[in-house]
Amino acid sequence: MGQFLKRPILWKFWQVGRWVWLTSREEQLDAYLGGDLMQVAILFNPISGTGRALVTAERLRDELTLSGSCVRLVPTERRDPALWLRPKLVGCDAAVIAGGDGAVRMAVAELSRAKVPLWHAPCGTENLFARAFKMTRDSNDIARALIDRKTRLIDLGAVTGAVTGAVTRSVTRSVMGSVMGSVAGDESCGRSTDAVVEGSPQRGTPSEHFAIMGSIGFDADVVHALDACRTGGISHLSYAGPIQRCLASWKPAELDWTIDGESEALGAGMVVVGNLPEYGVRLNPARDAHPSDGMLDAVFLPARNALELAAWVPLLRFGLHMELAPARSGFRARRGAVVRLRSSRSTLLQLDGDPSRAAAVDSREFRVLPNALPVLLPHSNHHPVQ
Questions:
Q1: I need a surface site. Which of 129, 189, 224, 307 has the fewest CB within 10 A?
Q2: CATH code of residue 139
């Protein structure tokens, strides 16, 4: 190599090439030489995407380390994130979540508290958060975003619940019993819960956060039924059985809501409260939701049974439900900072495609948390969600 570089013309080529390379890598080299290494935590769900998240996390660790970041892997846990995640975020400059939307939801409260920007490396079934912000699991895209350090604050949603009426047995057991009886044919998939007995004091559920949307109705029952029998990673096909069996058993509750102080009776059906416009298989009921407007978008789909609810699918799939829903159908779409929802009986709740861990209740309050979560933006588009 030394003899090769002694030739003047080749030495010039070597210097020019080295200068071009150093210029293109200047920001990474500054990080290396200046001691300003980006501290990045890669959170991964060990069972997400049938093991794809773990493989992705290890690959990203190796490749982002080469690009000038100090990276550590953090597996997600089912216990309170304040116990296992909060200590890992101390001194962290960014968090990359290799997993699905459930892994994102699990982390958002602690990321918001620590003001650590989030990047979603999609490894789940739907990956709605990554879709909304055009995020990928390509290490080059992530490295570029880490160098740019362009972030955007988005809203989060928080939901609490309470039992306001007299319930004679365990509210969760009574709701899950009808769903799981049709799904599993027995009680082997159910999970025991504390009973709420008639005459006992009314008790609220702990606050839970969501980034995308929450809903009660057919989809929440299906999500809970699937989770009760889940043993590992899932795919779209995993939903086929619970959906098929819930079609015959689903009986919607009568609903009403109060949005920013304005009350409205709704009737039987399903409610989706969206912070982002995304929803599974691109049905997108809250298609106009904006993550930075300080509002939640509430959508009511009237349906007396699952077949009537299925009739909404073509309109939702092509984004025509806002324009073509007949006025007499009872369809509603409203926007507000606080959405209080009451049902004629206790109902289950799903958040960001995962089951809420709270008991079934008949009253819930959805509240927006403005500008709560910093999001790391892709280099190609600093405003992916308009």
A1: 307
A2: 3.40.50.10330
